[in-house]
Every structure is written in structure tokens, then in C-alpha cells.
Amino acid sequence: MEPKTENLIRAHSWADKLLADPNYEVIPADSRKFVKTTDVSGQEKWVQHNCGREKVHAPSAVQPHGYILVMRGDDLTVTQVSANFVDIGYEVNDLIGVPLRNILDDLSFTELETSMDHSKYKPMHGIPIEMGKGAHRKTFTGIFHRRGEWAYLEFEQHCASPNPAKLNAMLHDVNQQLFGASNAIECCQVAVEAIHAYTGYDRVMAYKFHEDKHGEIVAEKRSDGVESFFGLHFPAIDIPDQARALFIRNIFTHIPCVDHEEVPLVPECCPVTGQNPDMSLVCIRASSAGHLIYLSNMGVASTFVLALVVDSCLWGLIVCHNLTPKCLPFAHRVVTTLMAETVGLIIKLQQEKAEIVERQRAHSIREPILEHLHETDDFTATFASTQRSIQDLIDCTGACILHGDVLHKMGSTPTDSQIIDLVDYVGSQCSGRLCTNSLSKVYPAAEAFADVASGCLLMICSDGLVMKQKAAFMWFRQHWVKSINWGGNPDSAYGPGGLQPRMSFKKFTSTAIVEAQPWGKVAVEAVDEFIRGFLLHEAFKGCKQGRNLLETMNYKDQFLANVSHEIRTPLYAINALAELCLTKPYVPQEVREHLEMINESGTSLLGLLNDVIDVRRLDAGKLELHMQDVDVVGLARFCLKMFRKQANNIGLEGFIIYDDSLCNMNLRLDKTRMQQLIVNLVSNALKFTETGSITIRLSRDVPKNELTVLVMDTGIGIKPEHISLLFSKFSQVTNSETKLFHGAGLGLSIVKQLVDLMGGQVGVDSEYQKGSHFWFTIPAQPSTTSEPPTQPCDGEGLAAVHEEKVIEAVPPCVNFPSSPSSSLVCRYLEGEAKGPASRTSTGTPPAVPSVPSTGFPSPHRLAPSPSRFTTDSDLNLQARNTRSSWWRNFLCCGGNRRRSMSPQNTDDASYHQTVVTMPTSTSLVKFLEDARPRILVADDNVVLQKVTAKMFEDLADVTIAQNGQEVLDILESDANYVMILMDLQMPVLDGIAATKKIRENVVWDHIPVIGFTASSFSDEIAKCLAAGMSTLLTKPLPKATLNQVVDECINGKYQRSRAQPH
């Protein structure tokens, strides 16, 4: 749609909405009659009742100089007519209900049909039509238009059209003068002179509307002896809103004779709708009675008014007055209408030209300021050195910038405190943006400084994503005292009963404080552009800072990764060697205690390192959740057992309480992070609990699919003033009673961040000196698989179901004496073992605990069920079928172990007996030759090579490779390995590249490759899996975990199908 058409439709929509206001009323024809000026009291009485509420677009009458037919739009059947058709020989009732084709002659109807398509919005075509009966028949000018579902045909006295050649010459001269005008006022002066010359009206004026809707005569051309109104102002109420809306619909109004008798419509209301027809576009429409009184009081006998519409807004009027009645022919009205539309177009072009100039001026001021700000990046210095430019950005009397707590003022402005209060008000009440020329109406406190800030244009920039400090930019305009010449006393427009036309239009001068000049569109745009440029600068600065911060964070990540790698590598050696030494049967007690301290210190250091890395991942948003099926009860049991030794040392009891809805159910959770949450809370509870118990409470909200974990302790509790600090980084409660408890203060912070990442909530309830309850609630959907959670097979744990919950106490297990170790088996094979091949050890077990029991589980794990061996062939068969699964069982158990309990005196004197039966040396050697697995370890660190080999010496034969290339070389000669333990960072060929080459070889492709690295960042996992590794382990790891991985590889968990050669 073209902009001109779109603006026209928008203007009409505004007019339609206003004229449809139910507050406006239709004044019946009889009531529209008013007493002439000789009866002033009656006149005032009428206008007080009717003026300002009249529906001027829908009168029930027309002016007497013409005739009208109102018809249905579809078939042009007449529904209403003006009563004066009797003057040309028609009976009014004979026309109603008759199609127009039957009223007009064929020639006139044919000509009319041709013009119908051109009459959608405005009646711009006059058609000669023969009308009348008998002696009354004559030629009229027919004016046809449609509006909505109705059609209208008017008849006026026919006049000859202007000579085309003379008309074209006249319009050409006028257009040249109009386009040559330098401003809108000069253009209006050209127009009024041309219309005065063309129409012959006594006085032609250009009437401009100001921002407050009052009008001013800015151009005038009058005949000799006619009173001048040039320079006079007229109040806005002289032209009510419904009249302004009507000028948008119909560009002209023509009243040939002010003193006339209106002609009513017959019938008065439409027989179809029961309402008056919409006569907005009817040329002979009856005028408002108030308007007629107004003109009569001015001494005007005839008028013709043209609207000046600029960009769909009513900019002003061209008003023609005549001191005697005067009917302007329709053809002349069309010519003057074209002139008015041209004037509106030229004014718009001049405004746009002026706006372009103003925008260029603002741009020339704005850009140096922003460039200076961009170059120096110093807000204060920039605006301190360019104060005049800031003020000159738009037309104002003062300007001010508030940046943080610093004010930069220029020109005439309010005081500092007044500015700050104003900014606070606009920020809270006006959404940070204010544009007004009457500040006191918006902000009453501004009345105190209206002399310097009557107008205010204020913008607040406080986007926390872009700016660190709030900035407010404001421009002020002073009010001004002005003497205004009115056309009559404007206060007389209001009488005791309301609005009324003034009786006098003599010059009336008033002096008043006038509001500040309104801020124009260009001024607002200039400020918007300045603010936009300022925000872009701040955003650019923020991006630059963000880029620098990102680089710094990347450096930190790299540094942390390197530090983590360098710490984990020796830590692995320290922990592994300490653990290996602890497995020896004849380590002196003092040395054993020292080794345990070394192992615990290494584990503590590893925990701290993991905490630091987790905090970094969480802060950077790089930690991702990996959902899987999790047995929450089993996981809680496992977490509680992790602390059994520490708890037993200080005599704490441990309990697990869980709902029966969690029995035999897996939930979709991130197992690693769920374990971390529980471990952190239990660790925190142990740290501050010296006596009593620690309990894990698990509950599930089935309708909401939420899991709540509560860790309760009987420790020292927390004072209320310290609770708010608990989940902050590096925060710990520090006082004389807790100074013995150490830690980095990251555990609870990690809990809070992990729970937030899971979309849950975390909290604490604590009473000082009585204990604390830490809890978190997270979404937990039930598993979609039907497999129940794996239950412990070693008999650990005691459970009792009570209605809706299960209470479980984890009892200590039986402490067996050290079972025959793998080193003993080796000595037996070498002939160094002394004593019989069978050994028996006894111990006194504790009583079977009741619910709840006391104590945490013992560190000893019960042995699996024993295997049976009969013949050498049986051994060989089992070796072929199970490979080293038996080997693992044998080494863990020291041979075949049977567990029995004496039935005698089971309460006090019960005992456990373990019998270890060793097979013959010949059978065992033969079995070991077939069953002992082989592991290929790739690591460039000599210390770790020896440590890893030592860790595996009881389980498998270990081959060492210095780098990835050596791995490939070894596999070329012998690929019979159950597992490859691959370090990632190695010279020559790193672990990932070596794994890719292994996966490309059809002979080696089936071998599980286990990544083994000191790096702790999750992006390594994706790289390793993408290269073809089966899984990734992080150093350091306990021997038990490495043993488990070997078992899984042997049992085929990571087995890959052999690729078929092409």
C-alpha cells in the first residue's frame, strides 16, 4: 500500500473512532432551529445545551441550495429524500422506494454509472443531470458518492465549468509560487491570495493549529474595507473535536448563506437502520447550529472552509468569508480543493526538508561527542570537555547528565537535589523516559523550578546487561511570558452552562506564562540517536571487556587444567603407592598409620582440587548433566558407607530412612552429581558432628515427580545470623566453637549451584547446639525401563517396612582377619609358602543389630560365593569359558572360601569360619597360563609406569608403552590384550590419535581402550569418546576402581565387535 493511501486510511480511522463516540448526539431538525442574534438569551440557552455534543456528521437536514437522494448501495433504491424536492415538481413519497434508474433519464444514469467507481472517498466529480418535472425541469450538477452500505446523490444549480486553458495557466502559476515558497507561512500566503483572486471571497485566511490545538491566523488576503483578523489567536474550543474529525473525512465545508432555513430529510431517520444517515461527505449537509451562530456573530454571511491536512493530521484551515451570501459552484470548489491539497503536500515537504537539516545539524554535534567518548573511554572527561555540544544537540535552555553519582550540568538547570529527585521519579513512575513541555503536570514538585524546567526531555539508561552505572540524560526548556492577541476574549467561550460561541471578536490581549515549546519529532529523534550511540559505545566497551574477560577465563581454564594435570600425576603415584603398601600383611603398625595419613591427605587434596574445578565449571556454565537410571536408595547407602571409617573413629551412628515409593524404583538423574550432592552434605555433617548420629532421609513426591534428600545431624548447629552465608563460596562459620573444623568452604556452594542447575531448591533448618537439617528437592522422573534397581548381594544392610516408609540402618559387616593375599599365592607357587594348603581363621562377630542399629559399615567387603574345582580338565574348561573371572575371585578370596556360622550359642559365642582351599600347584600353574589377562599401559611418565604396573601385578601381565606409536608397534606383533590403558598427553603420538588408528585397524578394533588422564575437564570426555575410547578415567584412582574396570573389560562390558576385513 502506498504511504499516501495508508495515511489517508489512518486519518479516516481516527475520524471514524471520534465521530462514533456515544457522547455525541443527533440533534433533531426541529431542535436545530435557534433564535437569531436579536434574542441573545435564547441563543445562549440553545448553544449551552447543544454545542459540543452534536453529531455534526449526521444531521437530519440539508441546506436549502441543493437536493439529495439517500439510497441503498446495492441496488440504488431511494430510502430518504430532502423535503425540497417538491420545489421541482416531485412528490416526496413518490421518490421513496423507487430505484434511481427509474428517476433519471437514460443518458444521465449512464453518465452517472461511469463516475461511480471514482467516488469511493470523496465526491470530486460533477455530472450534468436533467431533473425536475414540467416547467421545473432543468440541468443540475449531480454529485455522487458512496459511504458504507449507502449511496448519496446531490443536486446543485449547474454552472459552466471554468475555461480549461485559463484554469491550467492559473494553476501553473499558483503551483510555481507555492513550490517556490521558503516556508509554510509563505506558502499559505500564496494560497490565500490565489484563492481570494479565484473565488472572489471578501476575506481569505490561513488558520494554523498550535500544539495545544488553539489556532492562529498566519496569512490573510481581504478586500478593501473588510476587517482584518491577521495575527489573532482563537481558542481550541472554537473548533470542537468532532468538527476537526469531520475535516479529515471531508476536506471542505460550504455554507452559501448563514441565515437559512434547513430542509429536513423525509423520513427523518433511515427506515432500515432507524438512525440518521452518515452525511460526512455530503456537500449540502446541514451545518452545526453553533457554527452558524459563531459566523453570524462575526458578521459573516457566507463561508467556505478548506482543510490543510499534512501527513494525515489537521495542520490548519483555509477559511473564506463573505459579507453577503455567496454560492461557490462545485467546479470552483474542486479547483480550490486541489490548491489546498497542494499546500498540504508542500508544507509536508518543507517540514521534511527542515527535519533533514535539523537531523544533519544534530548529527554533526552528536558524532564528535561519541567519537571522543570511544577514543578516550572516559565518560567524565568527554562530557566535561563538550558541554556546549551536549546542550546544542537540540534546542534547549539547559542540559544535564547524571552518571552514577556525578552530575554534569550546562545552561539553566534545576539544583542538584531537584535533578536527582526528578530522575528517581521518572525511573520509578515513567519507565525511565519522559517527554513533556509541562513538567509540573507530570511531576507536581517541578512547580518549584518551572522557571528553568517547564519542558523536560529525559532518558534513563540503566540496562544492567550493557551498563555498570546508571546514566540519565536530560534537556530542559524554560517557560516564557508572552502577550497573545486573541480574536475576542477566549474566556467568553464558556458560559454558566458550558460551551458557547463568543459574542465579540474584537482584539483581546492577554499576558500569561506560556508552557515551554513542545519537543518536536526531530528533537526526540536526535536524543534517541544520541542515547542509542551511547548505549552502542557501552555495549562495545562491554563486549571488549567481555572478550578480555573471556580470554582471561580461557587462560585461567588452561592454567587450572595444567595445574590439575601436574597435581594429579604425582598424587596418583602417592596414593597408589600408599595403598599398595597398606595391602602388605606385615607392615608395622606405626608405618601403617603413616601410610593411612598419606592416603587420607592425598584424598583430601584430590577432593579440594575437584571442588575447585567443579566451581569453575559451574561458574562458566560448562557443567552438563548426564541423565541415567539411578537407584537412589542404593546410591545413598553407598555414600553413607564411604564415611564409615571416619564415623566409626568418633563413634557416630548412621541411618537411612526412605519412602516405600522408592523401593524397587530407578529415577532419571545424573548419578555422578547426585552422589556429589549427598557426599558433600554428609561430609559437612560429619565435620560439625562429634556425638550422636547422621541420618539420610529420602522422600518422593509422586504427583510432582520430585525427590527430596534430607541430611540430619546432631552437631553443633548454626546460629541464625550465619545461615545466610552457608551457600556462599569460601564461606564458613568461624567462631571459637568451630575453629577446629577445617575446609575450603566450597562444598555447600557446589551443592547450591548443582541443585540450581538441576532446577531444584536447597535449604537448611538449624537450631544452635541441637543440630542441622540440610535438604534439597530436585525434579526426578521415574525410569521408563522395567528393570528394578540392582540389590546388594552380600547380605549387607537390614530393612524393615513400616506402612509408608522403610527404615534402614546399615550395620557393620564382619571383620575377618586378613585373607590370604595374592602375594601369598605367588609365594606358594614359588615354594616359599609355609604350612598346610588350608587355613582356618575365626572371629567373634557382633550381635545381629536391631532396627535402627548402631555404627557405620565396616570397611571389609564380604567375599563372593566360592568356586568349586575338581579336575585339571575342569580348570582348563573354566579357563576357556570365564578367562580370569575365576582368577579375580581366587585372588580376592585366597582360594575357595566357605563361610559358616556355628548353630551353638549364636547370641554370644557365635563365630564365623572361613576355609581357604588351594588347588594343586600343577593345576594352578596350568590354569594361570591360560587365564591370566594381559594389559597394555601407555604412559610417558616413568613413575606412573611403575605405579600402574604395580597396581596391576596381582591381576594381569602388564606391558608398558612410552607413547601412542609404541602402542601401535606392540599391537603389530601381539594384539592379545584384554584392555589398553591409554594416557592422553604423550609425545610422538598422543592417546587420542593412537586410539583413532587402533579403531581404523580391523584386527585391533575390538580391544577396549580406556582413557587415563590427569585432566579433569568434561570436554576431554567428548574428544575421547569421539576418537573411539570406551571410557575415560581420571587420575588418581583407587586400586579397587582399576580392578573393577579390568573386570568389566574381561566380562565384555566394553567389548567391540570385530570389524570384518574388506
UniProtKB/TrEMBL annotation:
<feature type="modified residue" description="4-aspartylphosphate">
    <location>
        <position position="983"/>
    </location>
</feature>
<dbReference type="InterPro" id="IPR016132">
    <property type="entry name" value="Phyto_chromo_attachment"/>
</dbReference>
<dbReference type="Pfam" id="PF01590">
    <property type="entry name" value="GAF"/>
</dbReference>
<dbReference type="InterPro" id="IPR011006">
    <property type="entry name" value="CheY-like_superfamily"/>
</dbReference>
<dbReference type="InterPro" id="IPR001789">
    <property type="entry name" value="Sig_transdc_resp-reg_receiver"/>
</dbReference>
<dbReference type="InterPro" id="IPR003594">
    <property type="entry name" value="HATPase_dom"/>
</dbReference>
<dbReference type="InterPro" id="IPR013515">
    <property type="entry name" value="Phytochrome_cen-reg"/>
</dbReference>
<dbReference type="InterPro" id="IPR005467">
    <property type="entry name" value="His_kinase_dom"/>
</dbReference>
<feature type="domain" description="Response regulatory">
    <location>
        <begin position="934"/>
        <end position="1050"/>
    </location>
</feature>
<dbReference type="GO" id="GO:0009881">
    <property type="term" value="F:photoreceptor activity"/>
</dbReference>
<dbReference type="GO" id="GO:0006355">
    <property type="term" value="P:regulation of DNA-templated transcription"/>
</dbReference>
<dbReference type="InterPro" id="IPR001294">
    <property type="entry name" value="Phytochrome"/>
</dbReference>
<keyword id="KW-0716">Sensory transduction</keyword>
<dbReference type="Pfam" id="PF08446">
    <property type="entry name" value="PAS_2"/>
</dbReference>
<keyword id="KW-0808">Transferase</keyword>
<keyword id="KW-0600">Photoreceptor protein</keyword>
<keyword id="KW-0675">Receptor</keyword>
<dbReference type="InterPro" id="IPR029016">
    <property type="entry name" value="GAF-like_dom_sf"/>
</dbReference>
<keyword id="KW-0597">Phosphoprotein</keyword>
<dbReference type="InterPro" id="IPR036097">
    <property type="entry name" value="HisK_dim/P_sf"/>
</dbReference>
<feature type="domain" description="Phytochrome chromophore attachment site">
    <location>
        <begin position="183"/>
        <end position="341"/>
    </location>
</feature>
<keyword id="KW-0418">Kinase</keyword>
<dbReference type="InterPro" id="IPR003018">
    <property type="entry name" value="GAF"/>
</dbReference>
<dbReference type="InterPro" id="IPR036890">
    <property type="entry name" value="HATPase_C_sf"/>
</dbReference>
<dbReference type="Pfam" id="PF00360">
    <property type="entry name" value="PHY"/>
</dbReference>
<dbReference type="InterPro" id="IPR035965">
    <property type="entry name" value="PAS-like_dom_sf"/>
</dbReference>
<dbReference type="Pfam" id="PF02518">
    <property type="entry name" value="HATPase_c"/>
</dbReference>
<feature type="domain" description="Histidine kinase">
    <location>
        <begin position="562"/>
        <end position="782"/>
    </location>
</feature>
<dbReference type="GO" id="GO:0009584">
    <property type="term" value="P:detection of visible light"/>
</dbReference>
<dbReference type="Pfam" id="PF00072">
    <property type="entry name" value="Response_reg"/>
</dbReference>
<dbReference type="Pfam" id="PF00512">
    <property type="entry name" value="HisKA"/>
</dbReference>
<dbReference type="InterPro" id="IPR013654">
    <property type="entry name" value="PAS_2"/>
</dbReference>
<feature type="region of interest" description="Disordered">
    <location>
        <begin position="834"/>
        <end position="874"/>
    </location>
</feature>
<protein>
    <recommendedName>
        <fullName>histidine kinase</fullName>
        <ecNumber>2.7.13.3</ecNumber>
    </recommendedName>
</protein>
<keyword id="KW-0157">Chromophore</keyword>
<dbReference type="InterPro" id="IPR003661">
    <property type="entry name" value="HisK_dim/P_dom"/>
</dbReference>
<dbReference type="GO" id="GO:0000155">
    <property type="term" value="F:phosphorelay sensor kinase activity"/>
</dbReference>
<dbReference type="InterPro" id="IPR043150">
    <property type="entry name" value="Phytochrome_PHY_sf"/>
</dbReference>
